[in-house]
Write a structure and sequence with these properties.
493 residues; 18 helices; 74% helix; mainly alpha; 0% strand; Growth Hormone, Chain: A
């Protein structure tokens, strides 16, 4: 008992959560500053810059499921997932720095190819760490409530990483047209990310499980069968829309403060990011504590309606000379709502491998994680691409940006509309998906009990209610569950 208590105590939770300082921080820097770096510092058009993350996502369509399958097929004395945390820590640090190197090519094409290539390298490094990391918790802890506590601490660490990633660059990048500060920021965070991942490697454990004994080609082809789960499909909707709503805020924040409010150089951008990130941190602590006594859906169902109201209110204050205190107050509410989606998403993710196992009879946490990580990066890539396209559509001029001059009044209005309405649409979609998600603690306990029955570890007979729950959560009829054929092809027979 003492061993169990020690393993699930606060020290272990903090060690587990540390790696998401990288997971949360890296994407804050990228979504907030990478398009800015490419447009304002390197002189690339916003429409062109916005496609680079999308190129990375096409690459992720291969690497994320591939990595998930590699994890499920790997045997190591450290545990497969912890082994890749160790390997990926160095790779992630190096690739993150390479993204921010100033490169003045002779041609637009040459510059584009360079930064697209660097982004792909970073995406690979991120995959090597985050796919096994996302799959680690199910192999550490079985209990639904304790998993939620670990996920809560992870989200706090992620938010702490986001705070560092949001504040340090805003302080160091005083001149957003100079590429050198971006590189310096990247080098500092490469060290932070390396240390954080190594802490998780050193402070976690992993139950040894039989490796998936199929060829890599077969395993890769089967990755997408995780989407046959009704719960996983709805979870992906929550993940994609919820994180996309956050990415639009961070991705447009510089443009909003600089071009709409004309307040970047006065320190207001630092204040705005500090308030948003502080609110996320506070919200993460509050929502993380509440999901243990409410449900994993609670943070979104409560936080997002309030966030929608605050976001809509920004329309009244989006002009030069607006009362910045009010903007900060509204941003605090927005940040609290953003915390809600993060808490819910990572708490639910830990349970998706159990649902998949009931459907397929195969324990594939790496594969489930790989597909979820892929979707996370799709959200970031699509939001960056859409931001670039929308900025171009409202007349954003990279020439004016590179010269440090303001955009036209019409463009400023367009930026405001994007900053407000894009997140609102995505938040409404997230609320719908969350309402439809079919699993809380009661359903999780039924699923794990049914898995035990199928393994011969529980000799009870499923009740009519339990059968109905299994069918609701999985989307399969009860007699078709625990069938390896369910993992073989996408089409249901």
């Amino acid at each position: 008992m003492k061993t169990k208590e020690k393993k699930t105590g606060m020290a272990s939770r903090l060690a587990y959560g540390a790696a998401d300082i990288y997971g949360g921080g890296a994407f804050v820097i990228i979504s907030t500053f990478y398009t800015v770096f490419l447009t304002k510092a390197m002189g690339m058009s916003p429409a062109l810059a916005g496609t680079i993350p999308l190129i990375g996502k096409v690459w992720d369509a291969v690497t994320d499921p591939l990595m998930g399958n590699i994890v499920d097929r790997t045997k190591s004395r450290f545990g497969a997932k912890r082994f890749y945390l160790l390997v990926g820590s160095i790779l992630s640090a190096l690739t993150f720095v390479l993204m921010w190197i100033g490169f003045d090519a002779d041609t637009v094409v040459g510059q584009y190819v360079f930064y697209a290539g660097m982004y792909m390298l970073f995406s690979t490094g991120f995959t090597v760490v985050m796919v096994p990391y996302n799959a680690l918790l199910p192999d550490m802890v079985d209990d639904y409530v304790i998993r939620a506590k670990f996920s809560g601490i992870r989200t706090i660490c992620s938010t702490f990483g986001a705070i560092l990633a949001g504040l340090i660059p805003t302080i160091m990048i005083a001149d957003n047209t100079n590429p050198v500060p971006y590189r310096n920021v990247a080098m500092i965070f490469a060290v932070i990310f390396l240390v954080a991942i190594l802490i998780t490697f050193a402070g976690t454990w992993e139950r040894q499980k039989p490796v998936v004994k199929i060829t890599l080609k077969e395993s890769f082809a089967q990755s997408f069968t995780v989407y046959k789960s009704r719960s996983f499909k709805i979870f992906i909707g929550i993940f994609l829309c919820g994180q996309g709503a956050a990415d639009f805020v961070t991705g447009l924040a510089v443009y909003y403060v600089d071009d709409v409010l004309n307040a970047y150089g006065g320190g207001n951008f630092t204040k705005l990011m500090a308030v948003i990130l502080l609110a996320q941190f506070v919200g993460t602590i509050i929502f993380g504590a509440l999901i243990g006594v409410t449900s994993k859906k609670f943070p979104i169902m409560v936080g997002f309606p309030i966030r929608i109201a605050a976001t809509a209110a920004m329309l009244l204050f989006s002009h030069e000379g607006a009362n910045f205190v009010i903007i900060l107050a509204l941003s605090f509410v927005i940040g609290m709502g953003m915390a809600g989606s993060s808490v819910t998403i990572y708490a639910i993710l830990a349970d998706m491998a159990d649902v998949d196992e009931l459907i397929t009879s195969i324990n594939r946490p790496g594969t489930c994680s790989g597909m979820a990580t892929f979707v996370r990066k799709i959200a970031t890539g699509l939001s960056s691409t859409v931001i670039g396209v929308l900025l171009a559509a409202v007349g954003y001029s990279e020439v004016l940006a590179n010269a440090g001059e303001r955009q036209s009044a019409a463009t400023q209005t367009g930026i405001t509309y994007i900053y407000v309405f894009a997140p609102i649409v995505l938040m409404v979609a997230t609320l719908i998906f969350t309402k439809l998600f079919p699993m809380n603690q009661k359903e999780f306990e039924v699923i794990t009990k049914e898995i035990a029955r199928r393994k011969g570890e529980d000799d009870s007979v499923a009740t009519a209610e339990e059968i109905a729950i299994c069918e609701k959560v999985t989307g399969f009829s009860y007699d078709r569950l625990w069938n390896r054929e369910n993992a073989m092809k996408m089409r249901n027979r």
